[in-house]
Amino acid sequence: MTRVHRAEWARVVAALTRRFGDLGLAEDAAAEAFATAVERWPADGVPPNPGAWLTTTANRKAIDRLRRESKRDDKHREAWMVQDDTPPEPSGAIDDDRLRLIFTCCHPALATPARVALTLRMVGGLTVPEIARALLVRETTLEQRITRAKAKIKAARIPYRVPSAEDLPARVSSVLTVLFLVFNEGYLATGPGTDPIRHDLTAEAIRLTRLLHALLPDDGEVTGLLALMLLTEARRPARVSAGELVALDEQDRATWDAALIAEGHGLVRERLAAGVAPGRYQILAAINAVHTSARDIRDTDWSQVVALYDQLVRVDASPVVALNRAIAVAELDGPEVALAAVDRLGDQLAGYHAYHVTRADLLRRLRRDEEARAAYGKAIELAGNTAEVAYLTRRRDQLG
Question: Is 246 helix (H, G, I), strand (E, B) or coil?
Fold first, then answer.
């Protein structure tokens, strides 16, 4: 059932949103349909087309709710009318329900944090705890953010469609943010009881980013994000072994997906040839291109990686970027120089598990074992990915 939920949730919510024009109603009806499936499928068997069954059931649940909540005759007639299949309105350049849903959730009328949270919930199908961890916010804050966003969409009658060509550039930035976060949740899943790598989420993020790239082939950041996703996804076969995360320097590079790497490298070269100053995603893609060009970790051009991070800092001066730059600096200037840079980020990243992972690894290299053990312990406490916890636990226990 979990697999069906991941595969079909966004389709069901998107289909109901198109039909009823109410995101809250669509989500609630979809949730009721999945709950019904949990009750009935064990006895009746999984239907041949689970998505169609769920969509039909959710439609009925939505109609039933409209009837229950309606007291006026015109509302009763509305509830009956929506049973009829009617062709959707023209939706723009791409005919995809989930893409329309993304642009609805990412409408400029919503604050950026609300756009991200709502789309992760409605399109990515992530749970509130998963989204809260991805955004580093409290679950109660996240729930309020989603509820207010749905209410604003309904009150402002935000249209369910892909924007017109002239409006697309201004709207695409927040969509890219959402897609990147969906991909990251699949790349290193944080939900308890989930697979450590959720290929369904990475595949969905790549699929939707491909659609955006088809619509905006000259948009450098769309191209950059697609390249970044492909080059990251190419390493997936080597990232987990026996339930434990495998670090980049220990991965079997022969298992990396050569076709995805070739495609990602081609997109990076395409943007370099354009001669336009790159944005955040293009630089991140270029960094990944350097990593995936090396046959062995010892062949990595770390000076180029640091130079690219220097360029990224000018575009995105976030503490997370500074943390990742310090990891590269350790390979050029040594762990002591890198640790000094990392420690300066402590006030900003105290609740971020990767900060403690980085400190632990640098302290380990400096043979400061007791401090490294404490840093690994903090990282384990904050990490949500089961494979990463297993990896960090082994690294900590090796210190004795």
Answer: coil
Fold of 312-400: 1.25.40
Q: Which phi and psi (to 5°) does residue 244 adopt?
A: -125, 140
Which secondary-structure segment (H or E) carries 206? helix 199-215
Distance of CA 123 to the CA centre of its chain: 10
If we measure between CA atoms, which residue out of 359, 325, 354, 5 comes closest to residue 190?
A: 354
Q: Which of 87, 15, 102 is nearest to 52 (CA)?
A: 15
Do the beta carbons of residue 291 and residue 308 sit within 8 Å?
Answer: no
Q: How far is it, in rounded angstroms, from Cα 214 to Cα 205?
A: 14
Rounded distance, CA 149 to CA 10, Å? 17
Q: Are 136 and 184 in contact (CB under 8 A)?
A: no
Burial class (CB in 10 A: 0-12, 13-18, 19+), 127: middle
- State the sign of the Cα–Cα–Cα–Cα dihedral 388, 393, 394, 396: positive
Tell the residue number behind the tokens 């944080």, with chain if given: 190
Taking the C-alpha atoms of residue 72 and residue 75, their distance in angstroms, rounded to an integer, is 5
Distance (Å, rounded) from C-alpha 298 to C-alpha 15? 50
Q: Give the residue from 143, 152, 58, 165 showing the smallest Cα distance to 106.
A: 152
pTM: 0.77
Q: How many other C-beta atoms are found inside a 10 Å radius of the C-beta of residue 365?
A: 15
Contact 57, 30 (CB under 8 A): no
User: For residues 319 and 326, is the Cβ–Cβ distance under 8 A?
Assistant: no
265-274: long-range contacts (C-beta < 8 A, 24 or more apart)? 265/227, 265/231, 265/289, 265/292, 265/293, 267/223, 267/224, 267/226, 267/227, 267/230, 268/224, 268/227, 270/223, 271/220, 271/223, 271/224, 271/227, 274/220
For residue 219, name the pLDDT band (cuts at 50, 70, 90).
very high
- The domain segmentation of the chain, as residue ranges, is 4-81, 312-400
Distance (Å, rounded) from C-alpha 176 to C-alpha 121?
15
The residue that leads in pLDDT, 283 or 122, is 283
Residue 322 and residue 345 in contact, taking contact as beta carbons nearer than 8 Å: yes
Give the pLDDT confidence of 323-358 residue by residue, as tens digits: 999 999 999 999 999 999 999 999 999 999 999 999
